[in-house]
Specification:
Blueprint (H helix, E strand, L loop, with lengths): L1 H41 L4 E17 L2 E16 L19 H29 L3 H11 L11 E4 L4 H4 L7 E5 L2 E2 L3 H9 L6 E7 L2 E7 L2 E3 L6 E3 L2 E3 L3 E6 L4 H5 L6 E5 L2 E2 L18 H13 L5 E7 L2 E7 L3 E7 L4 H5 L6 E5 L2 E2 L2 H10 L5 E7 L2 E7 L18 E7 L2 E5 L9 H27 L11 H14 L2 H19 L7 H14 L5 H35 L1
Antiparallel strand pairs: 1-2, 3-10, 4-5, 4-6, 6-7, 8-9, 11-12, 11-22, 12-13, 12-14, 14-15, 16-17, 16-21, 17-18, 17-19, 19-20
Helix pairs in contact: 1-2, 1-11, 1-12, 2-10, 2-12, 2-13, 3-12, 10-12, 11-12, 11-14
């Protein structure tokens, strides 16, 4: 019985996030159909059924000629108009096919237009209520719209043996264009690399005031959706001093919170130095080698650490001795927390030996099968705790490799580093609408570029997301980011639905508009038999594409649940 209780308890969060994801997507489809319904009523076209949801009817009522119903699957909806299907047309008044071309076009276009207006409204709301780091990153990634202080798209660290280095990329390079397309956001650059496994990318970069023309061929890395491109470079981030301990060496030297660290011991810094637990466990992340090399170079002369600092318009070089402090980050309900270790505790000794940040992880792993005595400082007092592995969960590692649920960060001579964050502007009622319009236009251009790459074979359909993939992405957003990010993503999907429905595909709204244009030019509609054949072929092709995309969506979902 306890097994089933645990099983149900573990499933409930997934059911909750699935509903949180599917309901907004269903609403987007519902308002699309609501647009068709409203336009049909305005044009005097008989609407037989207007359903909220799909499947068997649960409840409903009849008003005039329309059956209003709520169906079993409340994710979307549909409108069934009289004479909409070519095989059902009789030429009677009130049929869809009997309406004028202008009225039919109005009815068909109303669905995508409502999705467009809804997306614009959501964008407007997001900008009006304020953006944060998560939403700014998402907006930039989806549309390429830079927010806050505009920064160049620059390369940070470069793996010595990676495709980026082979192609000539160097730290500090500014990416101007890829295959002739301007790059305005790092996520745009990542996407071009991601979709170009084993295919050359022609880059234009700026280096020391000069333009360089490079060719980089991303390696192919297997994934559940097929090969993805990687070049093993990082985005450049400015390093600032985020915290200084009172009375520390950094404080005594005159270093201030907000100082920009430009170099360490004469070496330019292109990424935020990080020396926590994640750097020292076995990992395929090439950046860990860079962090470790920087750590070792700092330790080469522990009595004279030279920092190149920018403070406003002033440039300084300050020297101070190297002193490391290892601070604990404890995971909830972990072995470390149950042993009494708290966030912020300074780890001092391990079985009586001084803690060494570079070897701490390997030492914990070596001692994992025996009790470990940990000495730590808390509020100026020395305390000792004992870590003992649980027989049910030996070593207890998380996805980042933390042993016993114990992670740690380091402070260097009493200072901690973080990436520079640009202040985000506040938008009023009118400027937020302007940003919403701009984001909407950029969404159109981004999706249009992706469709062009699909047709040209630059992007595989494997990388597209169907309903399952979109629902999975939305549910993960509910778990990881704020409401404004989720809202923007929903608006983005709504505008995508508008664009896809306007494509000249016979089964889509755009295909019907194309038929109307042909009818206008010919002076008469296409033969009914031809319409039926085109529609049936389109349905078969669309179902095949849907199943193809859904297959990879399902594989990705299973992979995410397992990991």
């Amino acid at each position: 019985m306890e097994f089933f209780v645990d099983l149900i308890s573990s499933i409930i969060p997934y059911i909750k996030t699935a509903f949180l994801a599917i309901i907004p997507l269903g609403f987007i489809i519902f308002i699309h159909e609501l647009g068709h319904f409203y336009a049909a009523k305005r044009c005097g076209i008989k609407v037989n059924t207007f359903s909220l949801g799909f499947g068997p009817k649960l409840v409903g009522f009849q008003r005039d000629e329309t059956d209003y119903r709520i169906s079993l699957l409340p994710f979307g909806g549909y409108v069934q108009m009289e004479g909409e299907n070519p095989s059902e047309q009789t030429g009677a008044q009130g049929e869809f096919a009997s309406a004028s071309i202008g009225n039919r076009a109005f009815v068909v276009a109303a669905g995508p237009v409502v999705n467009l207006l809804f997306g614009l409204l959501v964008y407007w709301l997001v900008f009006a209520t304020g953006i944060n780091t998560d939403s700014a990153r998402l907006i930039g990634g989806l549309t390429g719209l830079p927010l806050g202080e505009k920064e160049a798209i620059q390369i940070g660290w470069v793996a010595d043996d990676g495709p980026g280095a082979v192609g000539g990329l160097m730290p500090g390079d500014t990416i101007l264009s890829v295959n002739g397309d301007p790059i305005s956001h790092w996520a745009m650059f990542q996407t071009r690399v991601f979709t170009s496994a084993n295919r050359p990318l022609d880059l234009v970069v700026e280096r020391d005031g000069e333009r360089k023309f490079l060719s980089v061929i991303p390696d192919a890395e297997p994934s559940v959706r097929g090969d993805i491109g990687i070049i093993r470079v990082s985005s450049r981030t400015e390093t600032t001093v985020s915290h200084i301990e009172e009375g520390s060496l950094a404080s005594q030297t005159g270093i201030q919170v907000g100082d920009h660290i430009e170099s360490i011991n004469g070496m330019k810094i292109h990424n935020v130095p990080y020396f926590g637990y994640g750097v020292w466990h076995a990992s395929e992340d090439w950046r860990n080698e860079k962090y470790q090399a920087l750590y070792q170079s700092i330790n080469e002369n522990q009595e004279a650490l030279a920092l190149g600092i920018r403070r406003g318009d002033e440039t300084l070089t300050l020297e101070l001795p190297v002193r490391w402090r290892v601070k604990a980050n404890v995971q909830e309900s972990s072995i470390a927390q149950n042993a009494g270790i708290q966030d912020g505790d300074v780890l001092v000794t391990l079985n009586g030996m001084s803690v060494n940040n570079a070897t701490l992880y390997s030492e914990l792993k070596t001692m994992a099968d025996q009790p470990i005595e940990v000495g730590l400082m808390r509020d100026g007092s020395l305390k000792e705790v004992t870590l003992t592995a649980d027989s049910q969960r030996p070593e207890e590692t998380d996805t980042e490799g933390a042993l016993f649920g114990l992670a740690w960060q380091t402070s260097l001579s009493g200072m901690e580093f973080a990436a520079k964050t640009a202040p985000f502007p506040d938008y009023n009622f009118f400027t937020s609408f302007g940003k919403g319009v701009e984001a909407t236009w950029l969404t159109f251009t981004t999706v249009g570029r992706t469709l062009q790459q699909l047709v040209g074979g630059e992007v595989s359909p494997k990388h597209l997301a169907g309903p399952i993939g979109i629902a999975n992405a939305t549910s993960r957003m509910f778990d990881r980011v704020g409401l404004s990010s989720v809202l923007f993503f929903i608006g983005f999907i709504s505008i995508n639905l508008c664009i896809v429905n306007l494509l000249p595909i016979p089964i889509a709204d755009g295909g019907q508009l194309l038929f109307f244009a042909v009818e206008k030019i010919r002076g008469r509609p296409m033969p009914r038999k031809a319409q039926e054949i085109v529609q049936q072929v389109s349905i078969v092709l669309l179902i095949a594409l849907f199943l193809y995309i859904t297959w990879f969506d399902g594989i990705s979902l299973i992979h995410d649940l397992r990991n």
